[in-house]
Amino acid sequence: MGMKATVPITVAELKTACSQCNLLELCLPFGMSEDEINRLDELVGTRRKIKRQQNLYRAGDPFEAIYAIRTGSFKTDVLLEDGREQVTGFQMTGEILGLDGISAEAHTCNAVALEDSEVCVIAYGKLEELSRVVEGLQHQFHKVMSREIVRDHGVMMLLGSMRAEERLAAFLLNLSQRFTARGFSAAEFHLRMTRDEIGSYLGLKLETVSRAFSKFQDDGLIAVQQKHIRILDIPGLKKLIQRNASAR
Amino acid sequence: MGMKATVPITVAELKTACSQCNLLELCLPFGMSEDEINRLDELVGTRRKIKRQQNLYRAGDPFEAIYAIRTGSFKTDVLLEDGREQVTGFQMTGEILGLDGISAEAHTCNAVALEDSEVCVIAYGKLEELSRVVEGLQHQFHKVMSREIVRDHGVMMLLGSMRAEERLAAFLLNLSQRFTARGFSAAEFHLRMTRDEIGSYLGLKLETVSRAFSKFQDDGLIAVQQKHIRILDIPGLKKLIQRNASAR
DNA sequence: CGCGAGTTTGAAATTCTTCAAGATCGGTGG
DNA sequence: CCACCGATCTTGAAGAATTTCAAACTCGCG
Q1: Is A43 exposed, middle or buried (0-12, 13-18, 19+ CB in 10 A)?
Q2: Of A62, B76, B217, B230, whose Cβ has the fewest other Cβ atoms within 10 Å?
Q3: What pLDDT, on a 0 to 100 scale, did the predictor assign at position A6?
Q4: How close B10 gets to chain A, by Cα (Å)?
Q5: What are phi and psi of A122, to 5 degrees?
Q6: For residue B6, what pLDDT band results from cuts at 50, 70 and 90?
Q7: Which residues does A93 contact at the CB level (< 8 Å), separation at least 6?
Q8: Rounded to two decimals, what is the model's pTM?
Q9: Could you read off the pLDDT of A22-60 as tens digits, one per residue?
Q10: 3-state DSSP call for residue B195?
Q11: % helix / strand / coil in chain A, to the nearest 5?
């Protein structure tokens, strides 16, 4: 096991050049010039595979890196002492995980893979360093963080002001839109999360989620078969969110 | 009204040196070296006074600056087409407003002064520029954004997994802790927001908020007199949050 | 083929909201 | 100086939404 400086390494196995990545328009480099993106190659140290149900990180883990999802999907959640779980988000390819850790130099939530997944590991120190010289990277990184804040406000709106069916409609439309952005069907997809996880995210019990799914099916808005969803009436779902003027 | 280059200007009226500010440990410069803080003087362009009930910015306004609260307090909210309001946060001195605007170069929520207030205007372009050369500023700014994300997750926990009384208890404890950090009493303070605004923030109707206040008073946890709050039993409030194991 | 995790559905219980009516407060004008 | 006004807050009672509890169903997998 001697170390030989000349041992050839298949770099592609370990590192991922952002410039070669097909997730460019969804991920951190979005909006950067070609020139700038080429300077990002040192940014992504390694990739890391995470098996379904495994943690990418846990609350309390020291913060060292943020992660860009290359394949697969995740949920993030926070736990209360008494065991209550709140899912704070579901993330898919191109989205960034771990931003919560910057504030206290430790992660504050758990990130769990919903399926076998792979992430690009972006050492945070390197990111700060590089974003001091690559303006586009600095700006894009700020945008990513800000987008997360805006997204969170949307979830608050959902949880604080919408009723059960509106929440689920908003959730489905959000998924649909994100699948579309990734080149998948807007109308047909597989849920990677359980009813319980959806419920936790939406502030509802799993039975309530299930009932809302059934109701949508009865109303001809969607076709559900366990985790397989087909949206039949997108405008109908949209109307649901905006019309029910009665708040909670 | 001729312009004379030699007219003496009382700079202190227009600009605020961070290095002279008593909010240092609460605000953006927190954690930076004295040396670094001295390089911040060009950062804060002007101060701006906002009267009670007036907007610092509105959803849709072009994004140009973030704001540090010097005096007073604010709420931020998002509105749905049908008029529903979701208060996304209450901010006090030293806290930063406007981070939501970075993502789309336009603000996505409204910021309204809850009392006559004053903010430091931090031009965003200048902030990016300066944070490329002042490492401490870069890092602190990232921390501020990350902290906002963590805070939002806490609100999601609140809205998604707690019942009415738990939410109010968590809200009061959070206020108490933030007042303490500012050198005010942890146990006695004036609420700057209405029951309706608290309700919107907590995902409850104002009557529910009022009833929870009354209940806490009956239980000897607090003394309420309209907006004046005296907390009598902080451990009691804390227990409320963690003990009620039954989730929603 | 059967097991178990995840899902659906029903009925009762609970929490929160809605509607309605008074009460309280700070400020204003006679 | 005081009565009154509007805004805000409190409280009660009825109603609605969601949860809880319980039981049965479905599907993929060993």
Answers
A1: buried
A2: A62
A3: 52
A4: 34
A5: -115, 105
A6: low
A7: A23, A26, A69, A70, A71, A72, A73, A182
A8: 0.93
A9: 999 899 999 999 999 999 988 998 999 999 999 999 999
A10: helix
A11: 40, 25, 35
- Say how far apart CA A116 and CA A73 lie, in whole Å: 8
Say how far apart CA A97 and CA B155 lie, in whole Å.
19
Strand partners of residue A230: A188, A223
Question: Distance (Å, rounded) from C-alpha A158 to C-alpha A152?
Answer: 10
CA of A206 to C1' of D20 (A): 12
Amino acid at B233: D
For residue B51, how many other CB atoms are within 10 A of its CB? 10
> How many residues are present in chain A?
248
Cβ atoms within 10 Å of A52's Cβ, excluding its own: 13
Across the interface, whether the CB atoms of A159 and B160 are under 8 A apart is answered yes
What is the DSSP code (8-state) at residue A236? H
Is nucleic acid strand C under 7 Å from B203's C-beta?
yes
Non-local CB neighbours of B143 within 8 Å, separated by 6+ positions:
A102, A103, B31
Structural domains in chain A? 5-155 (2.60.120.10), 162-247 (1.10.10.10)
Q: Which secondary structure element, helix H or strand E, spans residue A211, and what is its range? A: helix A206-218
Pairing of strands A85-91, A74-79: antiparallel
